[in-house]
Amino acid sequence: VLFMTGTRDQGIADIETPEWRRQAFDNAAVGDKWLVVVEHARHATFVGRYDAFIAAQARESEPTPERVKIPGELPGDQRNPSTTPARLPGSSANAAAVRERDLFVTIKSMALAFLDAYEKEDAKGREALEKAGTSGGVEVQRK
Prior knowledge:
Blueprint: E1 2-8, H1 23-27, E2 34-42, H2 52-61, H3 92-118, H4 123-132, E3 138-142
Parallel strand pairs: 1-2
Antiparallel strand pairs: 2-3
Protein backbone atom coordinates (compact mmCIF):
# COMPACT_ATOMS: atom_id res chain seq x y z
CA VAL A 1 0.00 0.00 0.00
CA LEU A 2 1.20 3.51 -0.80
CA PHE A 3 0.14 6.37 1.46
CA MET A 4 0.91 9.89 0.27
CA THR A 5 0.44 13.24 1.92
CA GLY A 6 2.07 16.65 2.11
CA THR A 7 3.31 18.91 4.86
CA ARG A 8 0.48 21.35 4.03
CA ASP A 9 -2.21 18.70 3.43
CA GLN A 10 -4.82 19.87 5.90
CA GLY A 11 -8.44 18.83 6.16
CA ILE A 12 -11.47 21.01 6.75
CA ALA A 13 -11.61 20.67 10.55
CA ASP A 14 -8.89 22.16 12.76
CA ILE A 15 -7.95 18.70 14.04
CA GLU A 16 -7.25 17.48 10.48
CA THR A 17 -3.62 18.55 10.42
CA PRO A 18 -0.97 17.19 8.04
CA GLU A 19 0.11 14.88 10.89
CA TRP A 20 -3.48 13.58 11.13
CA ARG A 21 -3.21 12.40 7.52
CA ARG A 22 -0.35 10.08 8.54
CA GLN A 23 -2.52 8.10 10.95
CA ALA A 24 -3.69 5.59 8.34
CA PHE A 25 -0.07 4.59 7.71
CA ASP A 26 0.83 4.64 11.41
CA ASN A 27 -2.14 2.38 12.26
CA ALA A 28 -1.70 -0.01 9.32
CA ALA A 29 -0.27 -3.48 9.90
CA VAL A 30 3.37 -4.02 9.06
CA GLY A 31 4.12 -5.41 5.59
CA ASP A 32 4.92 -3.58 2.34
CA LYS A 33 3.40 -0.27 3.40
CA TRP A 34 4.99 2.96 2.19
CA LEU A 35 4.43 6.53 3.35
CA VAL A 36 5.58 9.38 1.12
CA VAL A 37 5.37 12.91 2.55
CA VAL A 38 6.04 15.69 0.04
CA GLU A 39 7.21 18.95 1.58
CA HIS A 40 4.89 21.91 0.84
CA ALA A 41 2.28 19.73 -0.92
CA ARG A 42 -1.34 20.69 -0.21
CA HIS A 43 -4.38 18.47 -0.65
CA ALA A 44 -5.10 19.98 -4.09
CA THR A 45 -1.49 19.43 -5.18
CA PHE A 46 -2.22 15.71 -5.58
CA VAL A 47 -4.65 16.31 -8.45
CA GLY A 48 -2.12 18.33 -10.42
CA ARG A 49 -4.31 21.33 -10.96
CA TYR A 50 -3.34 24.87 -10.11
CA ASP A 51 -6.54 26.74 -9.43
CA ALA A 52 -7.81 30.06 -8.16
CA PHE A 53 -7.83 28.84 -4.56
CA ILE A 54 -4.11 28.10 -4.60
CA ALA A 55 -3.42 31.38 -6.40
CA ALA A 56 -5.35 33.26 -3.70
CA GLN A 57 -3.37 31.51 -0.97
CA ALA A 58 -0.12 32.44 -2.71
CA ARG A 59 -1.16 36.08 -3.00
CA GLU A 60 -2.07 36.20 0.69
CA SER A 61 1.20 34.66 1.84
CA GLU A 62 3.66 36.65 -0.29
CA PRO A 63 4.26 40.38 -0.70
CA THR A 64 2.74 41.99 -3.77
CA PRO A 65 5.48 42.66 -6.33
CA GLU A 66 5.76 45.98 -8.14
CA ARG A 67 4.81 46.38 -11.78
CA VAL A 68 7.71 46.11 -14.21
CA LYS A 69 8.05 48.47 -17.15
CA ILE A 70 7.26 46.62 -20.38
CA PRO A 71 10.13 46.93 -22.90
CA GLY A 72 9.35 49.67 -25.44
CA GLU A 73 6.77 51.22 -23.17
CA LEU A 74 6.88 55.01 -22.91
CA PRO A 75 6.68 56.72 -19.51
CA GLY A 76 3.04 56.98 -18.58
CA ASP A 77 2.08 54.70 -21.50
CA GLN A 78 -1.53 53.63 -21.10
CA ARG A 79 -1.85 51.11 -23.96
CA ASN A 80 -5.26 49.69 -23.29
CA PRO A 81 -4.55 48.73 -19.65
CA SER A 82 -7.71 46.61 -19.52
CA THR A 83 -6.21 44.11 -21.98
CA THR A 84 -2.47 44.49 -21.30
CA PRO A 85 -1.57 42.46 -18.21
CA ALA A 86 1.03 43.83 -15.84
CA ARG A 87 4.26 41.88 -16.04
CA LEU A 88 5.28 41.15 -12.49
CA PRO A 89 8.77 40.05 -11.44
CA GLY A 90 8.59 37.02 -9.19
CA SER A 91 4.83 37.12 -9.30
CA SER A 92 3.57 35.13 -6.33
CA ALA A 93 0.90 33.48 -8.48
CA ASN A 94 3.48 32.45 -11.10
CA ALA A 95 5.92 31.20 -8.47
CA ALA A 96 3.15 29.21 -6.77
CA ALA A 97 2.12 27.67 -10.09
CA VAL A 98 5.68 26.56 -10.81
CA ARG A 99 6.06 25.20 -7.27
CA GLU A 100 2.77 23.28 -7.53
CA ARG A 101 3.76 21.83 -10.92
CA ASP A 102 7.13 20.68 -9.54
CA LEU A 103 5.46 19.11 -6.50
CA PHE A 104 3.00 17.27 -8.75
CA VAL A 105 5.91 15.90 -10.82
CA THR A 106 7.41 14.53 -7.58
CA ILE A 107 4.06 12.98 -6.61
CA LYS A 108 3.66 11.33 -10.02
CA SER A 109 7.22 10.00 -9.86
CA MET A 110 6.62 8.40 -6.47
CA ALA A 111 3.31 6.85 -7.56
CA LEU A 112 4.87 5.48 -10.74
CA ALA A 113 7.86 4.08 -8.84
CA PHE A 114 5.46 2.29 -6.49
CA LEU A 115 3.43 0.88 -9.38
CA ASP A 116 6.59 -0.23 -11.17
CA ALA A 117 7.81 -1.95 -8.00
CA TYR A 118 4.59 -3.77 -7.19
CA GLU A 119 2.66 -4.15 -10.46
CA LYS A 120 5.61 -4.74 -12.77
CA GLU A 121 7.80 -6.30 -10.06
CA ASP A 122 10.55 -3.97 -11.26
CA ALA A 123 13.57 -3.64 -8.94
CA LYS A 124 14.23 -0.14 -10.30
CA GLY A 125 10.86 1.03 -9.01
CA ARG A 126 11.61 -0.24 -5.51
CA GLU A 127 15.06 1.32 -5.67
CA ALA A 128 13.54 4.67 -6.69
CA LEU A 129 11.17 4.54 -3.70
CA GLU A 130 13.97 3.70 -1.30
CA LYS A 131 16.24 6.46 -2.62
CA ALA A 132 13.51 9.12 -2.78
CA GLY A 133 13.88 9.92 0.90
CA THR A 134 17.51 10.89 0.41
CA SER A 135 16.63 13.87 -1.79
CA GLY A 136 15.36 17.07 -0.25
CA GLY A 137 11.66 17.69 0.02
CA VAL A 138 10.51 14.07 0.26
CA GLU A 139 10.22 11.86 3.33
CA VAL A 140 9.79 8.14 2.77
CA GLN A 141 8.94 5.53 5.42
CA ARG A 142 8.40 1.83 4.98
CA LYS A 143 7.03 -0.81 7.28
